[in-house]
Amino acid sequence: MKRTNVVLDEKLLKDAVELTGERTYSAAINRALDEMVRRLTVKRGIEELRADPDPWWPGYAEELIGAESVRKFRQKVRDRVQKSMLIADAPIEPARRKPTRKRRGSRR
């Protein structure tokens, strides 16, 4: 384990602990990081499969259901992917930060 100092949103951290049922902040953060890594790994795998036009051996689908059906299906998939990419590539607005006040005195 690595020990580090981070600045976190207190309300978000408290909500995460309550929703996950973890007993400590560290456990909640570790669980969130595990979930994020798992999701991104799955997403990367799906993108790699999507990049390959025929993930099976060549001609398998054509043999099974016919060349014309495969061509129509692939075109449908390409159209659906292009539409979903438009939504996925939309810019996300950054979270707005609350204005901070200048601190007075010592920081103990």
Explained architecture:
- The chain is an all-alpha fold and 108 residues long.
- Among the domains are: 8-52; 57-84.
- It has 4 helices and no strands.
- It has helices at 10-20, 25-51, 60-65, 67-88.
- Helix 1 (10-20) crosses helix 2.
- The chain is elongated and about 75 Å long.
- The two termini are 27 Å apart.
- The mean pLDDT is 81.
Question: Short summary of the structure?
Answer:
With 108 residues, this protein is mainly alpha-helical. It has four helices and no strands.
Explain the layout of strands and helices.
Layout: H1 10-20, H2 25-51, H3 60-65, H4 67-88
- How far apart the termini lie comes to 27 Å
What's the total helix number? 4
Q: Roughly how many Å is the radius of gyration?
A: 23 Å
* DSSP strand content: under 5%
Counting copies of identical and different chains, the oligomeric state is single chain
- Could you name the ranges where pLDDT drops below 50 across 5 or more consecutive residues? none
Helical coverage, percent range: 55-70%
Query: What is the succession of H and E elements?
Result: HHHH
Residue-averaged pLDDT? 81
What's the shape? elongated
| Main beta sheet strand tally, sense and closure | none
Structural class: mainly alpha
Give the strand tally: 0
Key features?
108 residues; mainly alpha
